């Protein structure tokens, strides 16, 4: 929870910082592609390292280094232009990916079967989103009052402090082995590329749209992320309980539908309250999809090399989020002043992801049951 709170103080505003310091919006989307590559590499390295030296050690080291990188991001804002900030942000994404991969693997170690994993990931998400509910709101207020630089310094100190709590986590998993996942694993998780590109629009695209088109303040944008976090805390457990008793793909499709409705609602109203309602709807979609995706990726992995497999999964999803940010940047370049066209083009990604899951994931899950 503390790590998520600390990270979420500033991460929703990275793209806005780049945009406000002169980077064209299309280039911001391309830059997010590079950030995703850095995070993906970090997850790949973190997964392999967690198999070699243990999940807890990797998590603690990653948190300490990530905190230092966040502080460096704050200090870089004292320099002119946006490239010093862009460079340190890439380093932080690499280090943050390392610690997150270890956490994801540790949760998978404690699951027994796909439905059990759905429950575990749902439970973890509740704790994570307690932090996410407050972080963006507090971070937006800090940025308004003290400036972005101070907000990043505070975030870095809090992330480093969270490593102390990671030391109390009981070690898990088998140490000593790692390896590259087989090609069939990559093929079976390929539908998640489109899915994560789609859900990544709840980030750069939403933040820039609400700021540039709707005119929301940083505190107002932060309140949207607070709604997101509170909705997860309130609804994740009952939704996960229902998911664990039925076919996982059916719930995945329902989640994509809620996402699509919530995104499109953003085009239909201009008030803060309407934006909050739209975010509440798409968050229900997040509650359905997120535990399912993590559980499926775990269930399809080789348990003896879980860290390496989930590191590869994290690499794929990280790159996919960046592809989504790049796609969103292009869409905003063309349609930023035409909300219906903008969010309609975003929902096309969601439809494509659902179709891909039907053709690829459904057969893979049937083989898993047999």
UniProtKB/TrEMBL annotation:
It is found in: Cell membrane. Gene3D superfamilies: MFS general substrate transporter like domains. The chain crosses the membrane at residues 28-46, 58-77, 83-103, 124-142, 148-169, 189-209, 215-235, 247-266, 272-297, 309-330, 342-365. It comes from the Archaea. It is a multi-pass membrane protein. GO terms for molecular function: transmembrane transporter activity. One of its GO terms (cellular component) is plasma membrane. Keywords: Cell membrane, Membrane, Transmembrane, Transmembrane helix, Transport. Residues 1-174 form the Major facilitator superfamily (MFS) profile domain. Its main location: membrane. PANTHER family: RESISTANCE PROTEIN MDTM, PUTATIVE-RELATED-RELATED. This is Multidrug efflux permease. It comes from Conexivisphaera calida. The lineage of its organism: Archaea, Nitrososphaerota, Conexivisphaeria, Conexivisphaerales, Conexivisphaeraceae.
